Amino acid sequence: MPWYLYIALRHLFPQGRRFPVFTLMSLTGVILGVATLIVVISVFNGFGYEIRSKISDTFGDIRVVNGGLLGNPDGLAEILETKGSVDTAIPYAQGIVMMLYENKPLAPIVEGIDVRSDREVRKYGNYLLDGSMDEFDDDSILVSSGLAGQLGLSVGDEVEMYTPLMMLKLLESDGSDVLLPRHVRIGGIFQTGWQRVDENTVISTLRLMQDLYNLGVGAHGIRIELKPGFETEEEGRKIAESLGRPYYAQTWMDANGDYLSIIKLEKRMMFFLLFIIVIVASFSIMSSLLTFVIRKTREIGLFAAMGATPRQLAACFCLQGMIIGVAGTLLGIGLGRTLLYFRDDITSTLSSLMSVSDSMNQIYGFAYLPARVQSGDLIVISLLSILIATLAGLVPAYKASKMNTVEALRSE
Amino acid sequence: MSSTLIETKNLVRRFKSGDEYIEVLRGVDICIKEGDTASIQGESGCGKSTLLNLMAGLDQADEGKIFWNSEEISRDSYPVLAIKRSSLIGMVFQSYYLVPEIRALENVILGGRISGNTDNLAERSRSLLERVGLGSRMSSLPSTLSGGERQRVAIARAMISDPKVLLADEPTGNLDEATGDSIMDMLQELCDEKQVSLILVTHSGKYAARMGRSWILRKGILEKKSAK
To answer: Span B4-227: which CATH code?
Structure first.
């Protein structure tokens, strides 16, 4: 071990003496900064992951559309299912209807799903707050929690549905026809946790949607779920290329790009804001090391008199910053991961203390605090923290290396 | 014939005091050869330590030349001087300057590490500490050692790099007479054993008289006092 590294370690962790306050304070700053960064960034990752999985659950991985009506959706779905990356390809229809309940109108988006697919049925079954998928048929619909709340709907209620097609027919008939709405039963109320869907969405069977929009056996698109391990963007491009025009593939990321970019931006903002803690800690390291250099002036003079070069003297103090950075980062990662491990206990204790136990579920649709530790984040946080702590040691190191040996030896 | 280790020619050193310059050294010539022992005496503030620092290459002269092993070093850069110094010169100070965070043995080992003389370092450090009478205090921290013991550690640390010249700046200045005597005995014995030239800066006429040559620094001029 080079002598300057040995001295750096001994200055920070002296033998047979109490742990120096300087080391303790400097380490604490880095530990807290790194731990906070890891906790917050991992929770952001967790939220992002949960929201992404909800979006891809409700949207599918990829949707194949042709800008109009697919005349033979089953045939196209069969072709798509022959592709190695495609797990399921299911036709869907989508449109807007006017829904009336006790004279209260709303215009939700209706998505007709193919009940022949067990996967589709099971998926919405998982999100049901009330009702059952057994009740879901061509005369019933599932409504989102937001929609149910706005209209005051309960399972078993009956609503009237009008489609734009009905309005068109009425206009064309010069008022001679009577507009008869479609009466449907509320089979269930669901909540996915994805606000855009939960706000104003109705799930119907594909057949009901085909009836309402007079689609015959047609559909508006094919919803594709990929097999695990396939890259959505890449597969979307390949599918679009293989089908050719007028078909095109829209991934769940394309469709929700604005929202996803906000999540990314928020994560980056939090990273930079919280990194200020590490920067503040680095100033504490710098000021402590500067004081230390002044305290060790005679020692620096002695090392120089014994043959130490200015670079070695600088390394001695710069390494102290780096050692604090490395030790603080490792301990910070440990503390951060411990806090994440006990996050549910911590949040439930805090929630019960503040009497806000259900707020997270109500706002985010999660009954727990999601968190995902990503190795990429750990590497970036660790490298930046160590770099900042090392840079903090540069100023004291420069001061030590430029010290006049004679004056240093004479100092009181 | 013994070779010249350190030589100074017409050394001048001035210090600024207010608007004036004070000439502390006025053309000092000194020559230290292998095996020499010499003392430099003088009043406080007369420039003894300044001369020692110049000889050690720690300070720069305003005029004159310094030679180490007959090579002029006045124009050498700081890092080059540091490397040359570590193999030629050992230094002992009045205030010991031990590193308080490490034990006695490690302080000695540190001297070897800094000078780059690391062959069999731990073993040599132990034997040097035993030689200076601190065989039982190797694991002690400096704070638990007496003044005399600290100076012994400092001497062992200076000797670990196998220097050819030992520059001792008032090594007994902080010690009582009995301890000072034992330190001087030990210092001289060690220098004799290892054939190390000793330059002693001291206020004590008794210790100065033990050296082969004695000088007095008076008004910036180095005067020969007597020969042993």
So the answer is: 3.40.50.300
